[in-house]
């Protein structure tokens, strides 16, 4: 504890001695200035290529599938059965780049019908699926 020297009161000083704190901070600053450049080394990682066969200008026509409430399905405005739809999914899944399946279902269509179509698309290997909706009513 520091004692006052110039005062006749002889009590303890109420000022904090910051000199040791400044010394420690300067030492830490020098340590960090020396070690920081040593820690920033670069690691080279070979990244995979996206798909070299795909041409950027190539546009793929999406598959438009409409489902009515009674379960009838229309692929690109042509009525299809479930077997024909599975065959179309398998054909589209084999293409590169793969077309997107755009699904339009009536809002009163049962979910199990939509779930069955999604399951068939997934089983065929379709990975791009989109749902088409209308704006706010």
Explain the overall architecture.
This protein has a domain at 63-131: Nucleotidyltransferase, domain 5 (2-Layer Sandwich). The N and C termini lie far apart (77 Å). It has helices at residues 19-39, 82-93, 111-124; strands at 63-67, 73-75, 78-80, 101-105, 129-131. The chain has a five-stranded mixed beta sheet with strand order 3-2-1-4-5. Helix content is 34%, strand content 14%. It contains three helices and five strands, in the order H-E-E-E-H-E-H-E. Helix 2 runs parallel beside helix 3. The protein has 137 residues and is α/β, with parallel strands linked by helices.
In short:
The protein has about 140 residues and is of the alpha/beta class. It has helices at about 20-40, 80-95, 110-125; strands spanning about 65, 75, 80, 100-105, 130. The model has no long low-confidence stretch (mean pLDDT about 85).
Give me the CATH architecture of the domain at 63-131, please: 2-Layer Sandwich
End-to-end C-alpha gap: 77 Å
The first-level CATH class name of the domain at 63-131: Alpha Beta
Helix content: 25-40%
Strand order in the largest sheet: 3-2-1-4-5
**Could you tell me the mean pLDDT?**
84
| General form | elongated
Largest sheet: 5 strands, mixed
- Under CATH, the topology of the domain at 63-131 can be stated as Nucleotidyltransferase, domain 5
Sketch the topology as an H/E string, one letter per element: HEEEHEHE
Taken as a percent bin, the fraction of beta residues is 5-15%
The count of β-strands is 5
Give the count of helical stretches: 3
Determine Rg (CA atoms, Å): 35 Å
Structural class by secondary-structure content: alpha/beta
- Sequence stretches where pLDDT stays below 50 over 5 or more residues: none
